[in-house]
Design brief:
This protein is about 10% helix and about 30% strand. The chain has a domain of about 25 residues. The chain is mainly beta. It contains 1 helix and 2 strands. The protein is elongated and about 60 Å long. It starts with 10 loop residues before the first helix and ends with a strand. InterPro entries: CD36_fam. Keywords: Cell membrane, Glycoprotein, Membrane, Transmembrane, Transmembrane helix. It is found in: Cell membrane. Pfam families: CD36 (PF01130). GO terms for molecular function: scavenger receptor activity.
């Protein structure tokens, strides 16, 4: 187990990372699911959602 406490060696790196860290998530909205198997699926990209 990794214990993160103010006295641990990795705490300062976790608290203020030396490089910016971001998580980018892209979602896709399927606009024509009722036509599954009949036509090519059509997707609209949503995002990025950045955390």
């Amino acid at each position: 187990a990794l214990i993160l406490s103010p006295t641990s060696k990795s705490f300062s790196i976790w608290k203020e990372t030396p490089i910016p860290m971001y998580l980018k998530i892209y979602l896709f909205h399927w606009t024509n699911p009722e036509l599954l198997g009949k036509v090519k699926p059509h997707f609209i990209e949503k995002g990025p959602y950045v955390f």
